[in-house]
Amino acid sequence: MRKRSAMALAVLATATAMTGIISPIATAEPSPDIAADCGTITSIADGAISALTPLRSLSPEDQRAAKQVYIGQLQGQMGSLSTERGRADVQNFINALQAAETPADASLIVNALGKLRSDCA
């Protein structure tokens, strides 16, 4: 049996944790200072699990490369945001992705995604 890398386990732990909170949150309106960015932010949050889950089946080298491609895509999306708060939330998610290397780090990603969702709920 192939040994799973720490990154694969972190992605798996994140995906497992997120399945319980990935559904849309609340009915309240987002605050006006971020509302203009919520379409992009919601798209990022909605696509995170489908973007990260395939990484668990890759070799550690391929995982790192795929993660960097995904981070590059997020940075491109961040460039289209018009609010400082929106950019900060996406940067927080990027930072969590960069820091997550072990299953114990999955909470970093879960918390960053939760922040993205809650700010646009």
TrEMBL record:
Superkingdom in the source lineage: Bacteria
Keyword Signal: yes
Signal sequence coordinates: 1-28
Keywords: Signal
Name of the protein this chain belongs to: Hemophore-related protein
